[in-house]
Amino acid sequence: MVVIVSRRVYHGLICGAVLLALLLLWRSPAIRKVISKPGRVMVMIDPGHGGVDGGCQGGSMQEKNVNLRIALALKDWLKQAGIPAGLTRDGDYPLEPFGRPGRHRRDLTKRVRLIEDSGAVVFISIHCDWSSDSSRYGPAVFYHPNNEASRCLAQAVQHQLNQLAGITRREAPGDYFILRTARVPGILVEAGFLSNPAERLRLQDQRYFAAIAGAIGRGIITYLQPTLPKSTAVAFGHPKQRGE
Ligand SMILES: [Zn+2]
């Protein structure tokens, strides 16, 4: 007998299975250690580019700076929620100095290593987008097509960002090096289009990038919640929503 299920139901079932796997993982001492041990991080945040690599540019805004501001705001938001988070960079510098050929690939490889060595259970790579069509706007979340946990996390985060931006975008598959290479489920968030003058202006506003960080944080919590013990602050949801 062939049972036909809709794509949405199928994805719901797969997400349920992933969350069950996370729940079982939570029972393992390894995951408990991540939360309970000081200095260990649960979520790794990767602000794209840095230093010589400015990323895309819109007006006078360089992507690397917007990425870092959102990343720092997200780390702060997660800290208030009781989720220890780390950063692949916390200032304006590249992970691989300018000079030798292959710098970009080595920079990305170092980010992957930092994510894996951190012991994090998920990672979020933060970028901004650019298009020759200056009317394009809104945040977009990418997952690796071969990683179902990555897709579930992307779905949760895209849902929150859609609510913030008033859009109905679906999370999308993306074969990015960092998503393909890291042995930790992760997503790549394009926070908005620097090529869109109105969105660029919003991304200069501290309240807006704090709101973006809050939306990403809520998506992470939705994804992690089944695995979290009631004793952690995050178990009851959302920390004080500063600046949102
Ligand atoms: Zn970028």
Characterise this structure.
The protein has 244 residues and is α/β, with parallel strands linked by helices. It has a single domain (7-236), classed as Zn-dependent exopeptidases (Aminopeptidase). It has helices spanning 7-26, 29-36, 63-80, 103-118, 148-165, 177-181, 197-202, 206-224; strands at 43-47, 57-58, 61-62, 85-87, 122-129, 140-143, 172-173, 186-193. Helix 5 links the parallel strand 6 and strand 7. The N and C termini lie far apart (51 Å). Residues 27-34 and 233-244 have low confidence and may be disordered. Bound molecules: zinc ion. The site of zinc ion (ZN) has 5 residues, from loops.
Beta-strand content bin: 5-15%
Stretches where pLDDT is under 50 for at least 5 consecutive residues are 27-34, 233-244
Spell out which ligands are present.
zinc ion
CATH level 1 class label:
Alpha Beta
Distance between the termini: 51 Å
What is the count of structural domains? 1
Main beta sheet: 6 strands, mixed
Output the radius of gyration. 18 Å
Spell out the CATH superfamily.
Answer: Zn-dependent exopeptidases
In the CATH hierarchy, the architecture is 3-Layer(aba) Sandwich
Order of helices and strands: HHEEEHEHEEHEHEHH
Number of helices: 8
> What is the CATH T-level topology?
Aminopeptidase
Strand order of the largest sheet: 4-1-5-8-6-7
